[in-house]
């Protein structure tokens, strides 16, 4: 017997609605993945404005859901369960998604599952590569999160091994892009510029790699500052800024630290599979260096296609499917959003 799971994501600036089918053998099939982004509304501010994001979710939620159902060729009556991002994320943005999910669940009389956004980024890989080996290691790299996670059970067994102590990698990309005069969000334009640059041109620092630093934690604030100081000094000398070389050198520093720590964690934890997900996982240098280092270490690397790496409803539907399959209890209809929901809480049970 198969079941259809509706997934709703609204933690930041993407309104995502996904539909998956959970088959009797536990496999999950993607039926629809529709996203409405408000990134253009935030670009002139150089970052996400919470109130703007919340209003954009409110306007986009129903049309995005309608597109998802049309794509899947399904109706509301076909839904067997609903999963929604309950956290972490922006409070107002989360509340829009949670409210919509509660309304659908009440109207359709189907169970509601409030799930963790971060766990969704891991679960989405199963839509492309099939079931996750247990255990596996996940490197989650996005605009707001940089974490190394041990995954013993995607439905309820996730342990944080390390996290960023300041700026996440995606935040550093946005701030460096601003310094270089590149558009927001900074990831794609820096990646594009870096392809024409020399990654060895400037020796930018590798944060949190000293013998006294926490071995699995990350820090990118110092790197961001080092780039800004380098550019300021060059401008003071009247030199033209070699944007491509700065971008390539910065990107190399980020990819070097992320992949070195991830591979070391996999080896020390005795884990043979590394999953990289989150928006920054689409970065070309990160994926290339990860492939190179994982191959050398005998570690299987899994990276979802770029569309699945960014925030979307499919990842929440996929996680919801795994939670349903594991027999977890649904959430109560008085479910509330938790902007600081820890990754260890995969789903919020009643």
TrEMBL record:
Q: Which cofactor does it need?
A: Fe(2+)
Gcp-like domain segment(s): 29-317
Query: Pfam families attached here?
Result: TsaD (PF00814)
Q: Does the keyword Amino-acid biosynthesis apply?
A: no
Q: Which residues bind Fe cation?
A: 117, 121, 311
Quote the cofactor binding remark: Binds 1 Fe(2+) ion per subunit.
Compartment(s) of residence:
Cytoplasm
Tell me which UniProt keywords the record has, alphabetically: Acyltransferase, Cytoplasm, Iron, Metal-binding, Transferase, tRNA processing
Q: Which InterPro entries match?
A: ATPase_NBD (IPR043129), Gcp-like_dom (IPR000905), KAE1/TsaD (IPR017861), Peptidase_M22_CS (IPR017860), TsaD (IPR022450)
Tell me where on the tree of life, at the top rank, the source sits. Bacteria
Q: Keyword Cell membrane, does the record have it?
A: no
Q: Where does substrate bind?
A: 140-144, 174, 187, 191, 283
Q: Name one GO molecular function term.
A: tRNA N(6)-L-threonylcarbamoyladenine synthase activity
Q: Which PROSITE patterns match?
A: GLYCOPROTEASE (PS01016)
Q: Which reaction does it catalyse?
A: L-threonylcarbamoyladenylate + adenosine(37) in tRNA = N(6)-L-threonylcarbamoyladenosine(37) in tRNA + AMP + H(+)
EC number(s) on file: 2.3.1.234
* Similarity comment: family membership: Belongs to the KAE1 / TsaD family.
NCBIfam families, per the entry: gcp_kae1, T6A_TsaD_YgjD
Annotated function:
Required for the formation of a threonylcarbamoyl group on adenosine at position 37 (t(6)A37) in tRNAs that read codons beginning with adenine. Is involved in the transfer of the threonylcarbamoyl moiety of threonylcarbamoyl-AMP (TC-AMP) to the N6 group of A37, together with TsaE and TsaB. TsaD likely plays a direct catalytic role in this reaction.
Spell out the protein name for this chain. tRNA N6-adenosine threonylcarbamoyltransferase
Q: Give the lineage.
A: Bacteria, Bacillati, Actinomycetota, Actinomycetes, Pseudonocardiales
